[in-house]
Amino acid sequence: MSEAKVRLYVDHPLGAAQSVVLSRDQAHYLFGVMRLGVGAAVLLFNSHDGEWRATVTEAGKRGGVLQCDVQTAQLQMPPDLWLIFAPIKKARTDFIVEKATEMGARRIVPVQTAFTNAGRIQQSRLQAHAVEAAEQCGGTFVPEVTDLARLDRVLADLGDRQLMFCDEALAGASAASALPGISGPWAILIGPEGGFSEAERARLHARETAHPVQLGPRILRADTAAVAALTVWQQQLGDWA
Ligand code: SAM
Q: How far, in Å, is the centroid of ligand 1 from the Cα of 223?
């Protein structure tokens, strides 16, 4: 058996002897870019069935077929953590999606706040970044990237999910609010370059399940704040703990 050098996310069931038909883009990537041919091994995952080693049985320019041989990893779900963030410039938004996937967010939720710069996002492009990040980092799960939604709608969808509210107004405060050790579903909220409006901040502070958190004495860029918050949460309550 040859060694698998490529990991690929497929939207297809995986199991013993299961055939997987490739899309045109996947065939182009495997056979055109990676130069694989019939007999080559590929690792497949689909967010449900773990990771499977598969063999290329048909290889064409516009398509191809793989057959699953053996399961190589069980599905490992990330903790029930959503990253809610206000999109910033394109490359920095891509960075946030990539890092949130690597660091183990289960859902990535772009949110429109009063001072959010972006009026729309390309959801499919961001979702593709999450797929690529999961392929690279050895994950067996790809977080869903939702479409841009207004803050009030996102807060309504949270239900009683705990919220780590990263509030830049607390930066430099002498008594930083601690993250309480509550288990179960959580979300992290990161604001835009312009920060939260006073009305948003008041609303968030009034929320029973919101926990205002300070990320050190300096104001961080939103992409830095996202990585810092994910690190703190994963370390204290997540699968790094
Ligand atoms: N324009 C805002 C200001 O000057 O006050 C800064 C916004 S900051 C670039 C973007 C987001 O990162 C904030 O809304 C907050 O969610 C998070 N953030 C940055 N630094 C933080 C800190 N020290 N503590 C908590 N959250 C922080």
A: 10
Superfamily of domain 7-73: Hypothetical PUA domain-like; domain 1 (2.40.240.20)
Judge whether 90 and 116 are in contact, CB under 8 Å. Answer: no
Tell whether ligand 1 has an atom less than 6 A from the beta carbon of residue 220: yes
Pocket test for ligand 1, best of 177, 213, 219 (most atoms within 8 A of CB): 219
| DSSP state for residue 65 in the 8-state scheme | E
Secondary structure (3-state) at 158: helix
Does the domain at 81-237 match CATH 3.30.830.10? Answer given as no
Closest CA to 40 of 50, 28, 51, 53: 53
Contact of 86 with 221, CB cutoff 8 Å: no
Distance (angstroms) between ligand 1 centre and the Cα of 128 equals 27
Q: Where are the domains of the chain?
A: 7-73, 81-237
Distance, CA 194 to ligand 1 centroid (Å)? 8
Q: What is the pLDDT of residues 129-153, one digit of tens each?
A: 999 999 999 999 999 999 999 999 9
Predicted TM-score (pTM) of this structure: 0.95
